[in-house]
Amino acid sequence: MVARGRPAVGLPCGRVGTMDGMNLTVGFDLDMTLIDSRPGIRAAYQALSAETGTFIDADEAVTRLGPPLEEELAHWFPEAEIPAMADRYREIYPTYAIGPTPAMPGAREAVEAVRALGGRAIVVTAKHEPNARLHLSHLGIEADAVIGWLWAEAKAGALREHGAQVYVGDHVGDVRGARTAGALSVVVPTGPCPEEELLEAGADVVLPDLTALPQWLAQYVAAQPA
């Protein structure tokens, strides 16, 4: 396993929570962290384009996953139409996007590793919460809590509320959310942001992908004061 970034075996000053078994809470982002949502989102955008007659470059859109839906729709629709288009996209999303979307390699094992250490795994995502729950249910990924509609620094409130010591994501927005919450920022460069950009944003640890998380997490927990 290769983990890069700041030394992160200890809980840095000001980080929330403690590390005695059941008090361990790890947060996860969803898109491009736990799930490869590109095939499903591409299909949903293509369906919305066909329905509205508005050109949407779905292949380009899926290179920008992470920020809220409305930010992407602003590339294709006039501002006044965005709320209605966002509502319609979310309505058709389950039909087109759930089935084609696979789990990222190691996603189930990463969540299960948190539980094996006596902890809780939560999902904090910018995605429409009901659709986030559908993805997890479809893929058999069991989270202790799912909190949607939160992006970047706004994720900090949910992370604090649940006492998350670690937040795992793939985007600089996830790094900002973790750091605002006082949680350790662990990232995987499996989304649109390369490793260098994630480190520049302040990520504490970079793992190659989620398959490396169980070993890293076990070492991290073992290093905490009793």
Textual characterization of the structure:
The chain is of the alpha/beta class. It is built from ten helices and seven strands. It has helices spanning 38-52, 58-61, 69-73, 82-97, 107-116, 129-139, 155-161, 172-181, 195-200, 213-222; strands at 4-5, 25-28, 120-124, 145-147, 166-169, 184-187, 205-206. A seven-stranded mixed beta sheet has the order 1-7-6-5-2-3-4, sandwiched between helices. α1 crosses α4 (82-97), α5 (107-116) runs parallel beside α10 and α7 (155-161) crosses α8. The longest helix has 16 residues, at 82-97. It is globular. This is Hydrolase. Keywords: Hydrolase. GO terms for molecular function: hydrolase activity. Pfam families: HAD_2.
Defining key terms:
226 residues; alpha/beta; seven-stranded mixed beta sheet; 7 strands; 11% strand; globular; HAD-like_sf; HAD_sf; Hydrolase; hydrolase; hydrolase activity
Order of helices and strands: EEHHHHHEHEHEHEHEH
Percentage of residues in helical conformation: 40-55%
Query: Given the helix and strand composition, which structural class is it?
Result: alpha/beta
- The coarse silhouette is globular
Question: Termini distance?
Answer: 25 Å
Radius of gyration: 17 Å
| Strand proportion | 5-15%
- Major pleated sheet: 7 strands, mixed
The residue ranges in which pLDDT falls below 50 over 5 or more consecutive positions are 7-18
Strand order, main sheet: write it out: 1-7-6-5-2-3-4
Beta strand count: 7
What would you call the quaternary organization?
single chain
Number of discrete helical segments = 10
Average pLDDT works out at 92
InterPro entries: HAD-like_hydrolase_sf, HAD-like_sf, HAD_2, HAD_sf, PGP-like_dom2
Organism: Streptomyces spororaveus
GO molecular function: hydrolase activity
Protein name: Hydrolase
